[in-house]
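Hey L., structure's done. Input below.
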Amino acid sequence: MEEIVTELEMTAADQLNPAPVVDGVALRAAEPGPRIKDLHVRIGSPYRWPCVARTDGEWERWLAEPGRRYRLVEYRGEVAGAADFEPQPGGDVEITTFGLLPEFVGKGLGGYALTLVVADAWTLPGTRRVWLHTSSFDHPNALPNYLRRGFRSFSRPV
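Output:
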């Protein structure tokens, strides 16, 4: 199966279409380190994320990126997923990771968790655009969730 990558963007904070609140879902800042690496690998393994095959050196460089912000998605006090985003020149903020751990997929958390991540990305000073990409290898609900939250494709028709 050929991978199809779709790039999506929001160009204004008011384009965010929030999902209904899910009691117990929260976002918490985290520091880069082994926990982030472990979460990314666990989240990404079922979807062939490139991070799964990173070498230790590649992980060190990735985690050392000075502007990247790391977030834990929590559900009722347990870590349920991870997200990170990175400011870029010109007021862009790229959501470089968003996902739930396999044991939390299918519990109705993704829409609200994404809402929190996107809202957090928009709080960075000077943000003019929030963007991300998704792959046809990602969970089947990933692209529909991004579209429901207000993202629009800028790389190919959806």
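The helical segments are 34-44, 56-63, 110-122, 142-149. Strands lie at 5-10, 25-30, 69-75, 78-88, 92-100, 129-135, 152-153.

-- N.
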